[in-house]
Amino acid sequence: MDVELPELPFALRTYGPDGHWSYDDGVLSGWAGPRQDRFVPPTGEALDPAADAPRLLGAPEGDFQLIARVTVGFNWAFDAGALYVHTGERAWAKLCLEYSPDVATVCTVITRGHSDDANSFTVDGSSVWLRVSRTGRAFAFHASRDGKRWTFVRLFTLADEKETGAALVGFMTQSPMGEGCVVTYDHIEFRDTWPDDLRDGS
């Protein structure tokens, strides 16, 4: 299913399980069902081929920043809402507001064959602003408590898009240990530029 948001210059398409995505008056909502997640364990455990989570993704051109305030209806450990980047079946990344495992935390997962997992900082309440940026093959993750001053979280690359196709970017929900959670995204914004400085708070 294709979805168009007035804030974005590209269409979005649903991937994975049904996320019951809806958009109304500037607010995008999605739902993760029980035990839904995207994570490839780095400990050598076999990947469950059915493991997946609802995603709503599109393919912006050139440099960009995608920004949204994310609010998660936390119920169980590791419930999360995320901004998500995908360049291949085993080449993707997510910037999450996650219940990790009992406090809201900004965390990241980068998957290149297998996934890593890194926590950044904790958040009071259930909302935070997230931003994913791209220039060339480089991506950057930032987070903010107020949408004004941004904390640099991560700079990375994924698989070569010439081999995997255009990068997809958008939204993801997850509830890997629980019975599901609702995530909302508002103050959605798209900029066709890379940040001037990744570490100065802008």
Automatic annotation (TrEMBL):
Species this chain originates from: Streptomyces vulcanius
Protein name as annotated: DUF1349 domain-containing protein
Pfam families on file: DUF1349
